[in-house]
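quick q for whoever's on today - can somebody do inverse folding on this one?? i tried earlier but teh output was garbage lol. tokens:
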């Protein structure tokens, strides 16, 4: 059996960003073109918008009140009544204005109309006084403070969105806020064009894996990665119904039978240099072409990527932490790009300080599971301390940690107190 024994196989190890770029390009080239679905807005959460969307109505559609109060013409505050004492007294119009309809009346000079939040301003008014600032003089007259400025408490027509304004850009992953914008902008009753979900098969490999206790290693990777993609990122991920054995012939048969059914096949395990790591052999025997192997990342260096027919294979490491880290920082970003999403720099992060010295190889990026302590000193960054169990197979380190600290490529000895980038689990949808 041929062993992949050093980093010279298929070139030097890629850094993370070039690996994501290469994998994204392979997916876009190999997989079927991006199809478009049309879904109701209530079904669009987490989907990627296929085209730019502009407001087709003004929001709000008319000038309206921002508060409950009384609408009036500001110029009437300074009208010459012959008596300064009465200059701010307004007669009340007979009807109040309520939200949900156009104004029903025009103001007479020196008059005010009771109005509710969101109601259209009556013709002739331009300012609203809050209800609690009004003084009732008689049942049919009120006093309005002179300190009010023109247009106070008034929302102009189109203040939020004007018709034609861009409200959601193509390539955006929709969320409740962007869905609210689309609904308000006039798209609530229209099908929304979103990119079709990429079809992904997740398959765990290894003769040692099982689903029951009693000697075998229970497969955690399959459920973990399937639910991550399917439930958190709206990718059409399916867990294979069986563990793939460490057998090149069985692996070849698997790839031949499944490659035409999926955009991407993601496996875990079997891509390192061990005697039973034979996924590459089976993949190439099925006609697959290996793109690259190994990425300068810890945990998770052994990552295999290749194309077969209209399918892309991504072989992730078998240890659960390594599988999760490489999924989050390599496979998932590429899947998002291939699914039409504009991801920019990827995940948001914050700066924290290490509470411990860290040593690493300059030739790789390392991700360390940490807990974040409370910051009580003004101006001090949050403190990041390593979780107790750091092995790549320690699922508990992800359960009890708050997220991942990135120790960057090119650094080796990192002293305690050094600011480093921290990404909480929630940024990954976890």
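ok took a stab at it. sequence:
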């Amino acid at each position: 059996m041929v062993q992949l024994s050093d980093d010279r196989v298929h070139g030097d190890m890629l850094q993370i960003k070039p690996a994501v770029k290469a994998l994204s390009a392979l997916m876009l080239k190999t997989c079927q073109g991006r199809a478009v679905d049309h879904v109701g807005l209530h079904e669009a959460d987490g989907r990627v918008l296929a085209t730019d969307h502009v407001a087709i109505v003004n929001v709000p559609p008319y000038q309206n009140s921002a508060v409950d109060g009384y609408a009036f013409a500001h110029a009437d505050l300074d009208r010459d009544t012959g008596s300064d004492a009465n200059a701010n007294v307004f007669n009340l119009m007979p009807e109040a204005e309520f939200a949900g309809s156009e104004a029903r009346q025009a103001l007479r000079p020196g008059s005010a109309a009771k109005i509710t939040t969101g109601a259209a301003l009556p013709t002739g008014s331009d300012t609203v006084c809050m209800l609690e600032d009004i003084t009732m003089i008689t049942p049919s007259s009120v006093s309005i403070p002179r300190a009010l400025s023109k247009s106070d408490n008034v929302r102009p027509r189109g203040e939020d969105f004007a018709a034609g304004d861009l409200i959601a850009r193509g390539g955006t992953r929709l969320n409740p806020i962007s869905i609210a914008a689309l609904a308000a902008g006039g798209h609530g009753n229209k099908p929304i064009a979103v990119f079709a979900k990429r079809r992904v098969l997740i398959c765990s490999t290894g003769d040692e894996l099982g689903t029951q206790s009693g000697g075998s290693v229970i497969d955690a990777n399959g459920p973990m990665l399937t639910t991550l993609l399917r439930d958190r990122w709206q990718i059409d991920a399916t867990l294979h119904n069986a563990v793939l054995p460490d057998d090149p012939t069985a692996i070849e048969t698997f790839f031949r039978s499944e490659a035409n059914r999926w955009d991407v096949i993601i496996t875990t395990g079997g891509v390192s240099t061990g005697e039973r790591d034979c996924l590459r052999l089976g993949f190439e025997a099925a006609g697959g072409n290996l793109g690259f192997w190994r990425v300068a990342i810890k945990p998770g260096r052994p990552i295999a990527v290749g194309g077969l027919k209209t399918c892309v294979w991504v072989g992730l490491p078998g240890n659960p932490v390594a599988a999760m880290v490489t999924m989050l920082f390599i496979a998932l970003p590429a899947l998002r790009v291939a699914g039409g999403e504009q991801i920019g720099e990827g995940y948001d992060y914050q700066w924290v300080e290490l509470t411990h010295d860290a040593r690493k190889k300059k030739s790789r990026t390392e991700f360390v599971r940490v807990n974040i302590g409370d910051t009580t000193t003004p101006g001090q960054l949050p403190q990041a301390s390593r979780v107790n169990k750091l092995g790549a197979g320690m699922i508990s380190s992800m359960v009890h940690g708050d997220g991942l600290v990135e120790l960057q490529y090119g650094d080796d000895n990192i002293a305690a107190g050094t600011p480093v980038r921290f990404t909480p689990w929630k940024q990954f949808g976890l």
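fwiw The longest strand covers residues 365-372. also The helical segments are 16-30, 176-187, 221-232, 248-258, 279-285, 320-338, 395-400. so keep that in mind when u check it
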